[in-house]
Each structure stands twice: as structure tokens, then as C-alpha cells.
Amino acid sequence: MDELFEKSIRTLELPRVLKLLADQATSAAAKERAQALLPQTDAEDVRKLQEETTAACMLLGLQGSPSFSGVKDVGAALLRAERGGMLNTRELLDIAYLLRAARKVKDYRGEESDRDTVLDSLFDSLHGGRFLEDKIMRAIPEENMIADTASSELADIRRHMRAASAKSRQILQKIVSSPTYSKALQESLVTQRDGRFVVPVKAEFRSEIPGLVHDVSSSGATIFVEPMGVVQANNELKELEAKEKKEIERILLGLSQEAAGLSEDIRWDYDILVHLDLIFARGHLSYKMGGMSPAIDTGGKTVLRRARHPLLDKNIAVPIDVELGGNFDTLVITGPNTGGKTVTLKTIGLLTIMAQCGLHIPAESGSCIAVFEHVMADIGDEQSIEQSLSTFSSHMVNIVKILEQADDRSLILFDELGAGTDPVEGAALAIAIIGDARDKGARIAATTHYAEMKTFAMTTEGVENASCEFDVETLRPTYRLLIGIPGKSNAFAISKRLGLNDAVIDRAKTQMDSESVRFEDILTKLEQQRQTLEKDRDDAARMKMHAETDAKKAREFRDQMERARQNARSKAEKEARQILADARAEADRVFTELKRMRREAEKLRDVQKENDERAALMRGLNAAEEKLHSLPAVEETRRQNTRPVAVGDTVELPGVKTRATVLAINKDGSLQLQAGMMKINSKADEVFLVENAGGEKKKNSQMSPRKGRAPIPVRAAASMELDIRGMMTDEAEGVVDRFLDDAIIGHLTQVTVIHGKGTGALRKAVHQQLKRHPYVKSYRLGVFGEGEDGVTVVELK
Question: Are the C-beta atoms of residues 27 and 277 closer than 8 Å to each other?
């Protein structure tokens, strides 16, 4: 990495973003790699990094974060073990912790293995080593401690050690508690010197207790004596301690050799775990800053939608929309000081190199990033006292280096290009520098106050003006970026707001040439017209939205009326089929009776009686046929209006069972009705007058169902959202099941279950239930603005 590129990265503040990334990592190695990240220059490599970050975000939302606790570099310990060395307990525990981390991370992916991701190959490549892990953990429960169960030999040695120690202490306890030796002892206690049990004896009574002297107090008044009665027991204890040490060394050496046998797998697992730790750190950072994965463009086009600088408070920063490299390769940004021009430059550059590092960017969908070989920035005050360089000279030194490296895979950011010298010469120099960089194919974004640069952008193909919006009424910047509109510096307006005398401002205006004044006035008028048009456009959009809402409500009411008519028609057809069935049954009865009569006629030979009964049967058939033909008038003949309809009456529309209010009576006698949101006309004889409508509603609400028919249960409208926070998993399962049934019956296609974040147990139980449900098409965790991983969005079949 050359000096210019490193300086540009610092200028764009990438190290501060990488520090935020390192804070999200767990292992020391992942933190170190995070802060050493560099932008990738190959589009496919960048696309792969973005896919990894996206997969990590998805898994974090579904399963939470895997644990990378215990991931520590054990390379030096493994190298010594491979050479036959014995590892200490700390080194062996580090290896066991690493193996446990590999096992847990591999098991983490197995929980949702039905969802394929680009990270699957990394999870699958982990080896782990449960046998060695358990063996080390059983043998070494904690640092500097070997368990008795590490081997049967060690358990036997320690059992004998405890017996020998108890024997020694028993003999010594008899001495210190005996009245015979009480005068000779300095204190009635048992202690140790050089690992052997002794008693403190007064110097003048040294001969009273025969034994070996192991120590003398600093004053000489106390002698620490090992009584002869316990010398043999202590000697036995020393021998056992030597055996214990030898056995422990044998155990540690055996574990070290087993670790050496798995050294390649352990090194591989360590590298993969650090790599995954860094990937999931990118996922955590994406959630923290509300990031998204931009499309990777290979044609040099950058589009940022509602992009924010990642180091600014996202609740305060004003999002910007910016394009570069499509219809134009150069963007000239103008506007007042403190209006956001420099922040815009840094946002373009920083989001570009963040994306090339595999990080998500704080922007919205539709954003894309071009991949550049060089991202070079000349931003800020470059004055150098040590090198005796002025601001202009320091900028020019940077610009010379930038132009030397510029090519068709370069993004160049100039802040206040040409500033710090004579304005006329500075403007000419700025135009020439941009022209040279464009000739080399670079993409350029530059800020300026020069009017000549605005004119250059307006008259040169491939160069576009942009400005940071300034509210002429409040005389304050809004920090919005406007593409295609040149901006004003607004020096006079800002100076006036800061308290500069009007006379001074008027005097300054007289010093400007007429062309400059006319140009600035035109820009002011254009800005005022633009703001007016934008306000009118927003008002029109709101009116359009209200109109669409009203139209939607009208369509819904019309559809409801149509469904009511269809229901009435279906009911009439059902009654018609019943009447027809009754008629057919009547006909069958008649024909059966006719056959019976024929049989009787053959017996009685009564021709007259047969003719009379035949005529009666025909009359019955004719009556049934008349009943069938009278069906269309069934509903209408049931009720008659008791009086003429008047304005303000409530009437019922036939067939659809919908009530309406009479607004007016037309000259031709027809009625103008208000039915919900719709106004309709109807003839007076086509509606039924509803007397005492208010009382009737109350009466109808108290009526019991008709005899012989069960009341039809009314199901409430299906809800699109269910909140189960605070429920136990067993309780929530039944509630979610009923919620899904209601949603399916209500023909909903998407619903939301709010389970909260918490420990993740409730979310996991809901996901398991959704996975088994036959009518669930898919489900996902909420994204930014929906509740993130505190909600699950379910799509139904």
C-alpha cells in the first residue's frame, strides 16, 4: 500500500470504521485482522465478501451469534509438542478450549442446515476433536491442577499420599496436645518446612524433643523440629510426591503427543474460526449501523440511495442521494460553507472503500458501488509548517501525486479544488486539473465556490453540477444534495445572519462585476422556483395519495355491494331449487297415486271416477308449476310499505340487504339515497321502508335464532399481527396455531408474530412450529424498521 493510498484511507476515516468492526469481534486475532482490512480491487472478490456478510446477517437473525469464546492462537504450543516437548496445563487447556469452540460453531450451523449459505463450506470444514477435548478437560479441571482421575496410577499414588500425611499429622497432633511437651513447644501447632511436617520448639528445650532440625526463627528463640517418630512417614510422603510429579509429567507428555498428532486440524480450525469471527463481526456491524449489501457494478457506476456517513448519528444525519459514473463521470458540488459538501465527498469515498472491504453500507435498496483500483482524496487543510508549505502548496503536492496515479479505475475526491490562491488562476487551474483526470478515465467528485467551475459543469458534456441545499427563508443549510442544480455560496446571506452590518454587505455587492451579480441572481431565482415546485409536487403527491385512498374505499364498498347481490342471488337460486324439488316430489306422489287409481279402475271399471281423479291430479301439477314460476316475486311480495317514503327515512335495498338514507326525492318520483360512501338513485317501489330503524336494530340484536336453524357464529376479522411476548413456549404454540388458522381463513398472505428478543427461546419455538405448519410458505426475521430479530414475518400459501 503506497503512501498516497494510506493517506487517503486515513482522510476518509476508514480506520475509525474498522475500529468499530474490531469491537464486534471476539478473538484477539479477529480484532487484529479487522483493523488491518484493506479494500479489495477485484469485483468478484468484493461480491463474495458482500455475500458472506449478508449470510452472516441472515444467520444472526435466525439463530443469534455463534460463540467464539476460547479461540486463541496455539501455534507455538503445537510446534513445541511436534518437536517432542511437554506442554503445561495452560497450553493444553487453550487447545481444549479451541477444540470446544470448533465443535460448538460446527453444531451451531447444524441447527438450521436446511438453509444453504455461502458460509456452509467454512462450517463443514471444521474438524473439532471431542475425544481429545474431553480427555484434557477431565485430566485438567483448571490451570495448575491435575485431577486424580487423569490416570489410575495417579489416583493410587495420591491415595497413599493422603494416608502418609494423615499418619504424620496424627503423630504430631499427639505431641502438640500432650502435657509432657507443652512447656517445650513455642506454640501448640503443626506446620511445614521444606515440605516436611514440623513442630515449633523453644530453643532452651531443644533436647526435650529428639528429631531433625529444619529451620530456626530469625530471633533464634524457636527451632522447627521434625520429631523422629514422623521422619519415616515424611520420608514416605516425599517419595510419593516424587512419584506423583513423575506421573503428572507422563500424563502431560501423553496429552501433548496427542495434540501434536492433531496439530494440522487444530491449526486449520483456528484459522477458520478467526475467519468466521471476522465475518460475523461484519454482520453485527451491519445490524448496528442499519447497513445493506450494495450491488457491485463493473462499469464504474456508483449510485447511493439515502446514504448516511457511518460515523454520524443515524438519528441526526441527513441521508443523501448521489450518482457518479452513469450519465456523467464528474460531479462538481457547490454550496455554502458548513452546508455538507465535504461530508458528501467523504460519504462517497468511505462507503466505496467500506464496500470493497466487504462491509455493508448505511444506505437503502437500489444502491450500487463501483470497484476502483485507487480511491484518492485531497480533503482538508493540508498546511505543513514543518515542510514550509502553505495550504495551496500542500494541496498541490497531493494533486500532483494523484494525477500521476490516475487511470480509468480511479475515484478522485477534491475538496475546494484550486482554493488558497488567486481566484481567477485557481478556477482555471481547477478546470485544467479536472480535465486532465477525465482524460485518464477517472471518476471525479469535487467541491468548489468558483462560479467558473459551475459554468464549466453546465457547458461540458459528462460533467454535472450538484449543490448542497440552502433554505433562503431560514438562511440555514438543509444538508440535502441536489443533483443537476448549481449552488450559491450565500456568503452575503450567511454574513447578514451572523450580524454583519447591512451597509458593509451593500458595499461588498457594489464590488462585484455585473455579470457575477446577474449570475448569482439567476441562481437565487432558480433556487426559489425549485423549492416552490418541490413544495407543489409534495402537495400534489399528498392529494394524489388521499384521492387513491378514497378511491380504494369506494372500490371496496362497491365490491361489498356486489358480493351482497351475489349472496342474495345464490339464496334465491337455493330456494328455487327447493321449490323445484318439492314440485318433483309432488309429481312423483301424483303419478304414484295415478298408478294406484289405474289399478282400481281396472277392478271397478269406473271410467267417470278415473276421469275426475285425473283432472284433480292435473290441477295439482298446475298449482305446483304456478308456485315455481312465482319465485322471482317471492322476496318482493313479502313486505309492503305502510306509507310513502319521505326525506330522512331509512330504507332497505332489495336483494343486497343494505340500508340507505333518503337524501332527496327527485321530480320524477325517484329517490336519491346515501349508502355508506356511495350515492345512488332508486325508484320508490324498489325499496322497503324501515320503520323505527334504531329500535329495530336493538330488537334484532336481542332476537334468538329461528327455530330449527343453528345460529351462525361470527368470526372476527383476521389480524395481521400477533404479540406473544411474555408467554411460555407451550402457551405460545397454541396461540400461534389459532392465529395462523384465522389468517388462512381470512385469506391473508402475510402476517407478523412479535416474540421479542430476550433469550431467543420463544423465537426458536415459533420457528420450529412454522417449519412444521403445512400452510406456511416461508418465514424470516424482520429487517430494520420492522422490529429486526424481535419479530418474524410469515408468508402463507
Answer: yes
Identity at 559, one-letter amino acid code: D
For cell 321502508, the residue is: 689
| pLDDT tens readout for residues 739-792 | 888 888 777 888 899 988 888 888 888 898 888 888 888 999 888 777 788 899
**The three cell numbers locating residue 208:** 526435650
CA nearest neighbour of 274 among 68, 537, 502: 68
At which residue does the C-alpha cell 462538481 appear? 332
The single-letter DSSP state of residue 641 is -
- And the C-alpha cell for 450? 468558483
Q: How many angstroms separate the Cα of 134 from the Cα of each of 70, 96, 271, 295, 480?
A: 15, 8, 22, 46, 60
Q: How far apart are the C-alpha atoms of 45 and 52, rounded to whole Å?
A: 11
Nearest-5° Cα angle at 608, 603 to 614: 90
Q: What is the pLDDT of residues 300-355, one digit of tens each?
A: 899 999 999 999 888 888 888 999 988 899 999 987 777 788 889 999 999 999 99
Tally of residues, the chain: 797
Phi and psi angles of residue 446, each rounded to the nearest 5 degrees, phi first: -140, 145
Residues 106 and 120: their CA atoms lie apart, in Å, by: 10
Cell numbers that stand for 47 in this block: 461480491
> For cell 489416583, what's the residue?
155
For residue 161, CA distances in Å to 107, 150, 194 come to: 43, 16, 16
Q: What residue type is 71 in one-letter code?
A: V
Contact 139, 146 (CB under 8 A): yes
Beta strands in 443-507 (DSSP E): 443-447, 463-471, 476-483
